[in-house]
Design brief:
- By secondary structure, the chain is an alpha+beta fold.
- It has two domains: 1-42; 44-132, no CATH class.
- Helices cover 45% and strands 34% of the residues.
- The chain has two helices and seven strands; from the N terminus they run H-E-E-E-E-E-H-E-E.
- A five-stranded antiparallel β-sheet has the order 5-4-1-7-6, with helices on one face. Strands 2-3 form a two-stranded antiparallel sheet.
- Strand 2 (58-60) and strand 3 form a beta hairpin.
- The termini are far apart.
- The model has no long low-confidence stretch (mean pLDDT 79).
């Protein structure tokens, strides 16, 4: 056996346990994620809240939406809550109202799992996803 053949043979022996560890880790992580998804679905569903925090209106296709909060619950019922148009004067009042809405959802058994905001100051759209806990 040449030195090169011995080195390649040695490297294969080292890599095999390493690869089996990666496969085992991947399998474990995949099972964990699937278990979490299944657990979340058993918990009762999701509610989505979208906040249009804008000073004039957000363009949605052919029309404009004024500053407001939309909530869609797991049973497809909805809420439409108006808020004040964005300005420095109204910023704190809107923040208090959004905070009250989030606390109201918590009191109904929802847990905030994700939040995303896009846009710029005076034209923000924020999405919140809540998981219903049983």
């Amino acid at each position: 056996m040449t030195a090169l053949t011995r080195r390649l043979s040695y490297n294969r022996k080292i890599q095999k346990p390493h690869m089996s560890f990666l496969k085992t880790a991947f399998l474990f992580i995949s099972l964990f994620i699937l278990t979490q998804i299944s657990f979340a679905q058993q918990q009762g569903g999701y509610a989505t809240m979208r906040v249009f925090d804008c000073n004039k209106g957000v363009s949605m296709g052919s029309g404009y939406l004024a500053a407001r909060v939309f909530i869609v619950y797991e049973d497809s019922t909805t809420e439409d809550i108006p808020i004040l148009p964005y300005s420095e004067k109204n910023e704190l009042a809107n923040l208090k109202k959004i905070n009250a809405i989030i606390n109201g959802l918590k009191a109904k058994g929802y847990f905030l799992i994700s939040q995303y905001t896009t846009g710029e100051q005076g034209n923000l759209v924020s999405d919140y996803t809540f998981l219903k806990q049983r």
